[in-house]
Amino acid sequence: MFALLQQNPTLRLFLVIGAGYVLGSIRIRGFSLGVAAVLFAGLALGAWGPGQFELPPLISTLGLALFVYTMGLACGPGAPSSLRRYGLRMALLVCGSLLLSAVICWGAGRWMGLPLQQTAGVYCGAITNTPALAAQLEWLQRNAPNAPQEVKVGPAVGYSLAYPFGVGGLLLLMAFYSRRLDPAQKPERPRAVTYRITERKPNGNFLEADWVQHETGLVVSRRLRAGHQQVVLADTVLEPEDLVAAVGTPEQHAQHGARLGQPVDVHLEHQGQEVQYRRYFLSRRELVGKHLRDLVLGGAVVTRVRRGDLEITADPDLRLEWGDVLRVVVPAGCELEPIFGDSLDTLAHTDLFPMALGMVLGVLLGSLPLPLGDPPYPTLGVAGGTLVIGLLLGYLGRTGPLVWTMPLEANLALRQIGLLFFLAPIGIMAGGQFASAMQHEGLRLILLGAGLTCFSSLSLLILGARWLKLPPADILGLLSGAHTQPAALAYASDRSRDPAVEITYAAVFPLAMITKILVGTWLLTL
């Protein structure tokens, strides 16, 4: 087996990936390593044959570029607007906590007599950020190509020792803090409520559907008048005694339903066949990146949009993405397939030209020197450059005929493949030094990582609650986003079931990611 693995790099790669997935699926009291277990599987193989099983560096570089670019595309659309919700103070809190953690890590590492490269890796593992580790390894490869192997893989060794508590300690803190959440809280999915119109606008005029949506967020989709149903369009006038179906979140109904009238126990979809309800799958390229208000649907109206597992009330400013499922109220006999595409086969043929162009731009940006300090100037590297370009193109959505975004399923698949192709080679490369590090600096590296995780998490929690006065759900999102930890986000979303968790996560994730990459690389220059 040893000889077979030596001769076959493809076998080594997929053996580590498969073994890592098995290891990552093991759950102990609700905690698992997840995809990061691939790194530990690589460490085990590398420790078995130090220097015998390393994979070509191109594999890890390609995996890193795929991972951060697709992640940037996914976070780009919502991050700027979400960050504006909290303003400069949240940005200062996140950046300040990460920078102070780096300074403490460097000082404690020197006091404990730890090698700088391993100390820098502990920083990435304690705050659970793989792209920052990748940027460190890339920086060493570029700036110290003739350094000993234990120096070039030092960050990966420190990362692997600090990472388990980086995830586990964060989840323990979130489990303790989540007791402050309301146990009766339910996800606020949009729902339809029927109202009997009794109210008018403040100026005494009849209500119009677009005025109702602008003022309340409720989407009025159909009405029943004199025994006949009709689709409610933006300029439809709602008169007293009309029965209308309005779609919105429970909070919107509770706060604004009275501005329409009285809720009644009548389901308009059961009242005749003049108006029907349809679901359409968005697969038409021309619509991707456009806003709902740009759609020309004739006599139909969109009430809700399902994106992945998230269901959103139709807002005129909502930007459409590949694979959105639109819930539409249409007059009987009206078919809109030609408008939306409604084809799964179309999504299966993903246009890879915009992706390739975006990756080229990211690699070029990452290679540009930043005029900071003395030459040789640092660069963003593959990780930083592709992330910045991914965020920018994800925010733009499209440029003329070029659609930068991709279907959610394709994005997640490429992101996962990229992460696996990065973790496996890095783990194998570091495995040869892992056993030696455990015998000499192992305990000190673990203690340093645990202390750093506790400091970073507690500082964010305390200042987020006391200074920013964030509610508990937002605190959980802040912790998950600042640590760029998907496992923490999944746990927080499951415990809270409040959309604020995902909103806050998306707000701070890109900022935290870029800060960690820059600060993590800066540590190596000290």
Which residues form runs of ≥5 with pLDDT under 50?
none
Q: What is the mean predicted local confidence, pLDDT? A: 82
Q: How many helices does DSSP assign?
A: 21
Structural class by SSE content = alpha+beta
Radius of gyration: 26 Å
Q: What do these coordinates show?
A:
The structure is a single chain. This protein is an alpha+beta fold. Helix content is 56%, strand content 11%. The protein contains 21 helices and 13 strands. It has helices at 2-7, 9-24, 37-48, 57-75, 79-84, 88-111, 116-126, 130-143, 149-152, 154-177, 209-216, 250-256, 337-340, 344-348, 353-367, 381-396, 408-440, 442-466, 472-482, 486-496, 499-524; strands spanning 191-197, 207-208, 219-225, 228-231, 237-238, 243-248, 261-263, 275-281, 301-307, 310-313, 325-331, 398-399, 402-403. The strands form 4 sheets. The protein has a 5-stranded antiparallel sheet with strand order 4-3-6-1-7. α8 runs parallel beside α21, α15 (353-367) crosses α16 and α20 (486-496) runs antiparallel to α21. The longest helix is centred in the last third of the chain and has 33 residues, at 408-440. It is elongated, with a radius of gyration of 26 Å. The mean pLDDT is 82.
State the gist of this model.
With 526 residues, the protein is of the alpha+beta class. It is built from 21 helices and 13 strands. The model has no long low-confidence stretch (mean pLDDT 82).
Secondary structure elements and their pairing?
Elements: H1 2-7, H2 9-24, H3 37-48, H4 57-75, H5 79-84, H6 88-111, H7 116-126, H8 130-143, H9 149-152, H10 154-177, E1 191-197, E2 207-208, H11 209-216, E3 219-225, E4 228-231, E5 237-238, E6 243-248, H12 250-256, E7 261-263, E8 275-281, E9 301-307, E10 310-313, E11 325-331, H13 337-340, H14 344-348, H15 353-367, H16 381-396, E12 398-399, E13 402-403, H17 408-440, H18 442-466, H19 472-482, H20 486-496, H21 499-524
Antiparallel strand pairs: 1-6, 1-7, 2-5, 3-4, 3-6, 8-11, 9-10, 9-11, 12-13
Helix pairs in contact: 2-3, 3-17, 4-16, 4-17, 6-7, 6-18, 6-21, 7-8, 7-10, 7-18, 7-21, 8-16, 8-21, 10-17, 10-18, 10-20, 15-16, 16-21, 18-19, 19-20, 19-21, 20-21
